[in-house]
Structure formats: C-alpha cells, structure tokens
Amino acid sequence: MSHLLNIEEKPATPTPAGPSMAAFLALGFRPLYIAGASWAVISIALWIFAPQLLGQPLSLVAWHAHEMLWGFIITIAIGFLLTASATWTGFNPLQGRPLAVLCILWCIARLGFLFGGLTGFWIATAAELLFFLGAATALARVMIKGRSRRNYGLPALILALGIADCLFLMAALDGNYVLLMERFDLGLIGMAVVALLIARRVIPFFAMRMVQGLKIPMLTRSGHVQMAFSVLALLAGVLVQVTGTPMTPGSGPHLLPLVMAGSLFVTGLISLGQLLYWKPQAVLHKPMLWILYLGYAFIGIGLLFAAWQFSNLFNPALLNGVLVRSATHVHLIGLAGFCILIIGMLTRTALGHLGRPLALDRSMLAGHWLMVAAAVLRLAALWPSAASIHLLHLAATAWILSLGLYLWRFVPMLIRPRPDKPAPVSMPKKAATVQPAQAR
Fold it and tell me: What pLDDT digit, counting tens, does each position of 338-379 carry?
C-alpha cells in the first residue's frame, strides 16, 4: 500500500532559494494550484461583490457555476493527478514547456469567458477543450507507460469532464436554464467520481502516516461497489440527456432519473460507511486530517440530497423548499464537500511534494477554519430570510480569506525549488523517487 499511495516526498529543513521557472514548471501541482486558488478568489469576489463586470454570452449563474466547477475544482483535481501520477507510474506526465502551454490554455479560457463576448466565448471553449484533452492525453501516456492498470480509467474520466463542460457551455449559449442545470449536475457527478476515487485512496494513507499505530482497512470491495454505482449514476445522467427525459420538479418519477437517484443514494451511503471504518475519532487532534474527513463526509451527505432531488419523489413545499432545491445538493457536494476537501489537499500534498514538514502553522490552520465557515455560512444562506444576503457576503469573505491565506503562504514555496533539491538545469522526464514497478 505504501508503494502505491506514496504521493509525497520526505520533508527536509528549508533553506533559502530564489524563484525558479524550472522548479515552477517541474510538476503540475505547482502552477495549477496557484492558478486554481487565485481564480477561486477572483471569481467569487466578482460574483458576489461586482457582478456588473460579468458579461455575455454566459449569464451570471452560468458563469459562476462554470468557473467554480471547471475553472477551480476540476483544475485543482487535474493539478493533483498530474503530480500523483508521476509517483504512481514513475514518469512525470507534464513539465517545462508542455506544462506551460497547458496553463496558457487554461488562462485563455478564463479570460475569454469573462471578457471575450461571443468571439471570446468560442476561443475560450476551444482552449478549455484542448486543456482537458492535453491533460487526459498526458495522464494516459504515463499510465500506459508505467503499467498503472488500476488508474487506466482516470484519463477517460478527465476527458468525460471535458465533454460535460462542452455540453454545459452549449446549453448556456442557448439560454436553456433547465438543460444548463442538468448538464451542470452531470459535471458535478463526474467530479464526484474522481473525488471519491482519489480520496478513498489517499485519506486512509495520510491518516496512517500521521497517527502512530492507526490501522485502517483498505475496504477494496466497498470501494469497487462505490465506483460501480457512481459510474452507473453518471451513465444514467448521460442517457437522460440523450433521451430528453424530464427531471424538473413535478414532472413525476421516470426510470432513468430513478436509476440515477438510486445509484447516488447507494454511493452516498457507502461513503459515509467508509468514514466510520476510517476511525474519525483518531484524527480529531490532527487538523490536517479531520479537514479531509469532513470534506469526504459532506460529499456523501450531498449525494444523498442529490438522490432525493433526482428521484422526484419529494414534496416541493418541504421546509420552504430548501431541502429539495438543486442549490442544496450543489453546495453540499461542491462547496462543503469538494472545497473543504480541496483546502486540505492543497495544503497536505503541497507540503509533502515541496519537502516541507507536515505541520500546519497558524495561517494554514486559519485557512482551514475559514473554508469550513464559508461552507456553513453559504448553506445557511440557502434558507430564505432577511439575513440571507448578509450570510452570503460573509461566506464569500471567509472563502476569499481562506484561499488568500493559502496563496500568501504557499506561492513563495511553489515558485522555488525544494530546499533539499536544487532546481534542475534540464528536467528529466522520469520521476526519480518511485520506480514504475512499485506503482502498479
């Protein structure tokens, strides 16, 4: 297990080093963590405090939903996979100029969707699809080269997220809000498949490395069942789009949405059950761990709410409609789930790969708590009341401070070489720390 899941490097005592482009572009997490976190700060600030700056053809809601899922959450996931795959396979998928090109495509997409008008929209769409294609191709190449068979599905999932992105953008261009949200849910579920796959592997590993004497079972069988049902939910969602099956509240239950809902329900239950086997009481004194457990728990809870939403078996007036609004499962999974998990992963994996001690300083811990506060406040704002707008502003402020603290603390490290390794003159394509045979 340690050979398979070791996605960190041994910490070393930091020594001063200047910024280095070679170090900055040595692994995917360095530029993409900075890019994704920076954009998360900027996009939320625009959405909440300066929405008048957001233009067409993407509407306000469409732009916000797109940039949060594809511009931030999935970008961070790709940065993680481009880094972890180097350890899983023994080969670095992207570095140097190819990695720089991928990041430039990402930047073109962000600017095009924000400022470009219709022409910029099409340029941004092309750049974004090339970004996903480039990332998926790079991952597939090293997975095959390193014979990392258990990870062969990851490039396909990244490509599927790119296709869901394209479908979402086409619905946004047509101005079809119902179709837009259905396709957003498709992307959300696809990302949930990726997040569950990654988290189920790394969270127990991180916990056992940090808590002396802690033993956690692999839960391989439940993991396979979890993946099977989550993929079934994703396929059912695709078939809903192909067949045009109605999913709007009040349209009544239909077979495909029921299959989708049932699959998500089972996936969510398995996720919560796995948490119990991971002995959460043993990590309560480790903020670097409980933040990951908390994010995983919210994903499971959010999947249960999504199942309820998609089943169409609810009373729309229930609790003023709050519990059955699409915004509820979207923010439970996306903000309380993915983003709490992300702030923990951004910190833990960056410290490991940068050769730094695996310990939180005050700013890092504050960032964790601020992200939790942002999630709680945003969920509270879903309840219709006079305080909703104030809760929304507080949630946005906590979000900006959380990721702002991360950038303030980590950008100086991400642009410099590891203190125990000088910046390479020419970056080798093969990772030196893990042999391919160990990662199979």
Answer: 999 999 999 999 999 999 999 999 999 999 999 999 999 999
The length of the chain, given as a count of residues: 440
- Residues ≥6 apart with Cβ < 8 Å to 175: 59
Q: Write out pLDDT tens, residues 253-300.
A: 678 889 999 999 999 999 999 999 999 999 999 999 999 999 999 999
Model pTM score: 0.89
CA neighbours within 13 Å on the CB side: how many for 334? 28
Distance CA 207, CA 197 (A): 16
Q: Which amino acid is at 408?
A: W
Minimal CA–CA distance to 139: which of 102, 190, 184?
Answer: 102
